[in-house]
Amino acid sequence: MTAEASPAAALFEVHMQAEINGDLESTMATMVDDPHLLNLGSGTGGQGAEGVRTFYATRLIGQFFPPDVEFIPISRTVDGERLVDELVIRFTHNEPIGHLLPGVTPTGRRVEMALVVIVGVRDDKVAYEHIYWDQAGLLAQLGLLDPAGLPIAPHTADQLLSFTRQS
Fold it and tell me: Which of 110, 131, 109 is nearest to 42 (CA)?
């Protein structure tokens, strides 16, 4: 079975589509009764059904995935308990994005960032999501952090895509 054809991958696709469609109830229906979600770059997320529901309702569902969002898959690893996606996401920061940039006013700038999403699966539902990205690089792309003199690489997503094209 390929990673794309696995039950975990099919579940995650349904989960992501519900998020993109802005459907809170369908998103929550893909999850176990006691999920957790952590966005490690911003520290946002939730624990337990109510914590995750509140996070989705106030920081993600219907508030992100602008019309120009683009998801570029790099790799996917799946086993019976976990799915790991490596991807690049592109979008224009034209609206508040509570899960990535809580409290940050839209900058109008174009963003290209690499993410790693780890999804735990239990009882054929999403048990958790751990999402990693380079927050300093994102802030530098948006002009909110000066990378001069700091070990910050704002354009690593472009490097990742370049390496991927070469392999």
Answer: 131
CA distances from 156 to 21, 89, 114, 137 (A): 29, 12, 7, 8
Domain that includes residue 22, residue range: 3-166
Q: Looking at residues 22-47, what average pLDDT do you find? A: 97
Closest by Cα among 69, 55, 74 to 21: 69
Tens digits of residue pLDDT in 100-151: 999 999 999 999 999 999 999 999 999 999 999 999 999 999 999 999 999 9
State if pTM tops 0.85: yes
Q: How many domains does the chain have?
A: 1
Torsion over CA: 122, 124, 127, 129 (sign): positive
3-state secondary structure of 158: helix
- Kindly state the tokens that stand for 117: 């999403």
Number of CB atoms found within 10 A of residue 34's CB: 13
Which domain CATH number covers 148?
A: 3.10.450.50
47 SS3 class:
strand
Nearest-CA neighbor of 141 among 99, 103, 101, 85? 101
